Amino acid sequence: MTVVEMLLGRRGPRAGLEGTQPLTSTSILEWLTGPKTTAGKSVTETSALGMSAVWRAVNIIAGTAAALPLHAFVTRDGARIQLDPSEHELADVLDDPHPDMTRFDLWELVYGSLCLWGNAYLLKLRDPLGRLVELWWVNPSRVQASRTSDGAKMYVIDGDTDHPQFDDTILHIPGFGYDGVCGVSPIRLAREGIGLAQAAEEFGARLFGNGSLATGLLQTEQRIDQPAADEIKARWKAAGTGLDSAHDIRVVGSGVKFHQLTIPPEDAQFLQTREFQITEIARWFGMPPHMLAQVDKSTSWGTGIEVQQIAMVTYTFGSWLTRVEQRIGKAFLPARTDPRRRRDPRVFAKY
After folding, report:
1. Residue 55: band (very low, low, confident or very high) from pLDDT cuts 50, 70, 90
2. How far apart, in whole angstroms, are the C-alpha atoms of residue 192 and residue 298?
3. Is the pLDDT of residue 112 over 70?
4. First-to-final CA distance of the chain
5. Element (H or E) spanning 17, and its range?
6. CB atoms near residue 109 (< 10 Å)
7. What integer is the mean pLDDT of 163-167?
8. Alpha helices of the chain — where are they, by DSSP H?
9. Which residues on adjacent β-strands are paired with residue 136?
C-alpha cells in the first residue's frame, strides 16, 4: 500500500484506531467527543467552531494568511532573487501545490489547523525523479507525532504503526508547544472558556424557547377552570391588541390582576457572560476584540483602531507567517551530512 492509498483509503478522523478503546469503557464518550467542561459541554477542535467568536477568529487568521503571496527565493551574492516555478521544485509547488485545491484553499487549511489543533501536516508527493510536485493536507486528528530512539521525527497516520512516515514524506508545521515535537491545541487549553460560552448560548436559547419571557401574568384569587382561563386571556388580548388600544385602560373583571414579567437578574447575566467570552476568545487568539464585533469598549474611528490593527499584524500574524516560512525553508536545507551544505545557495520561502 502506497502512502497516497493509505491516506485516501481512511478518511475518518479515528479510522485505524479500532480496537484500541473497548466499547465497554466508561470513557468511550469522552474518547469520541472529548472530556466535558465544568459547564457540561464537550469541546473539540471542530465543535468549537460552533461558537461565533471562535469561527470568526479562525477564519480571519486562516483566510488572511492564506491570501498572502508565498514565493520561493534564493540568496546569491548577498541578493535575494525570486525563483520562477521552472527553476526550482519549491517555487513550482508553492505556485500550484495541489491537483484540485487552490493555493488559498490549501494554506487556509494549514493555518486553520494551526489555530485549532496547534499543528499542521502536509504530505509531500514526489515524481519518479524525486522532485516535490504536490502537497496534500492531512487532518491533524489523524496524526500522532513522536521521535524515534535516534531523534528522528516519526508520524503515525490513523494508528498504522506498520507504515510510519518521516520528514521526507511529511511537512510538519507545529505551533507553540513545550516538548519540541508537537504544538499545543489552543482549543484544548481554552475549552473551559469555550464551554462556558456554548453553555451560555444554549441557556439563552432555552430561555426563549420555553416561553420564560412571557410579557406578564394574569392572576386571580378565584379557582377557575381552563375554559374560564382561556376566556379571560382572550378578553385581555382583545382589549390590548392594536394601536387604538395603546395607553388605554383595560377592565377584565373577575378579580384579575396583571403582573409584569421581566428577566430575573440572575438569568439576565448570561448576556454579560456571552460578551465577556468574546473578549476571552479574542485574548486566546491574539485578536483585537473589535475584529470579533466587540466594539463597546473600543473607539470606532481614529488611531485607536489603527494601532490595534498594527499590533495584530505584528504580534499575531507575524509569528504565524514566520513559523510557516522557516518550516518550509528548513525542509529544503541540505542534510547536515551533505558536504555541499555550506556551498549550496540557500533556497527559502518568504511572504
Report:
1. very high
2. 26
3. yes
4. 37
5. none
6. 19
7. 94
8. 3-9, 28-33, 52-67, 89-95, 103-116, 186-189, 191-209, 226-240, 265-285, 303-312, 318-331
9. 123
Pairing mode of beta strands 170-174, 119-126: antiparallel
How far apart CA 23 and CA 31 sit, in angstroms, is 11
Cα separation, 264 vs 228, in Å, equals 29
**Model confidence pLDDT, tens digit, residues 116-134:** 999 999 999 999 988 899 9
Give the C-alpha separation, 143 to 158, whole Å.
6
Question: How far apart are alpha carbons 270 and 281 in whole angstroms?
Answer: 16
The structure's pTM equals 0.74
Q: What are phi and psi of 257, to 5 degrees?
A: -120, 140
**Amino acid (one-letter) located at 148:** T
Average pLDDT, the chain: 79
If you write DSSP's letter for every residue of 233-279 in order, what string do you get?
HHHHHHHH-SGGGTT------TTEEEEE----HHHHHHHHHHHHHHH
At 197 the three-state DSSP class reads helix
Residue 262, classified by CB atoms within 10 Å of its CB into exposed (0-12), middle (13-18) or buried (19+), is: exposed
| Three-state DSSP class for residue 324 | helix
Q: In the numeric block, which cell numbers belong to residue 3? A: 502512502
| Mean per-residue pLDDT, 36-54 | 84
